[in-house]
Design a protein that fits this description.
Length: 259
């Protein structure tokens, strides 16, 4: 299996004005559109600076959450899978990435249902893929997805996402091939056996959604103790602003598909 951090491409989508109405589980104020767009631009610029060819799709006003391209598909060097997002308002986003993915991936599979799976629930490790069950990903969907992953040569395991955590990767991310950063509620996840699990520093649970690209870990700029943790391990990291996307329950992995 290939290096899980070795990406050459990413697919993003510019935020529509409607993004300020994106889903949030616990209510809370709308993000500021200008700030949110700036965060998105900084993210795209960082991916390009790290050497990726980034396609940025047009905004979709009818789909406030469509900037979170991670949730509608899975992408690998070997091919891609179109998913069935679990939020009804996001189901239609899939049709809007099909063409862009078909242009890059000769092998393009698609979930047919009736189950659901969001890309935010899928954590790719060096030797397998973990599918987290959540309010967006049900067991039927996870099992269909595991079968499709098998066609691309990836072994899948199904895990539980703690209650109150939107997506599995809201609560964890890979620092390196053997090390996970996870919120305390996920630290004892049985599927992490054999890996080293570092827990997020107190008060920095929202830092768990890191994204490693090549040798660099993208991490929210607000999380100083997490930066110190990465620095102490000699991990190169790049802080990025995430305050506005956090208003709509998102973090750094959510804003791209990568392969
Ligand atoms: C949603 O609730 O679907 C969006 N507001 C946030 C999606 C975040 N995506 C992710 O964690 N992969």
């Amino acid at each position: 299996m290939a290096d899980p951090f070795n990406f050459t491409h990413a697919l993003c989508r510019a935020p529509a004005r409607s993004a300020v109405h994106g889903i949030r589980a616990d209510g809370g104020p709308d993000p500021d559109f200008t700030g949110l767009a700036a965060e998105h631009q900084a993210y795209v610029a960082a991916l390009r600076d790290l050497g990726l060819a980034v396609d940025v799709l047009e905004p979709l006003d009818d789909f406030p959450d469509a900037l979170f391209t991670e949730d509608v598909a899975l992408t690998f060097p070997e091919g891609a899978i179109l998913l069935r997002p679990g939020a009804p308002s996001r189901a239609g986003e899939v049709d809007h990435v099909r063409g862009a993915l078909a242009a890059h991936h000769a092998r393009l599979f698609e979930m047919t249902g009736p189950g659901f799976a969001d890309g935010g629930d899928i954590l790719r490790l060096a030797d397998r893929v973990i599918i987290g069950l959540s309010a967006r990903t049900d067991r039927t969907g996870a099992e269909e997805l595991a079968g499709l992953l098998g066609k691309l040569g990836y072994r899948a395991e199904i895990a539980e996402t703690p209650r109150g955590v939107l997506h599995f990767k809201t609560g964890c991310g890979l620092i390196d091939e053997r090390t996970i950063l996870a919120v305390p509620a996920l630290a004892d996840c049985p599927e992490f056996e054999g890996l080293e699990v570092l827990t997020t520093p107190a008060g920095e649970e929202a830092a768990a959604n890191i994204l490693r690209v090549g040798d660099t870990v993208l991490v929210g700029e607000r999380w100083a103790a997490t930066h110190a943790l990465l620095a102490a391990r000699g991990i190169a990291f790049r802080p990025l602003p995430t305050d506005q996307i956090a208003h709509i329950d998102a973090g750094l992995s959510c804003m791209s598909l990568r392969w």
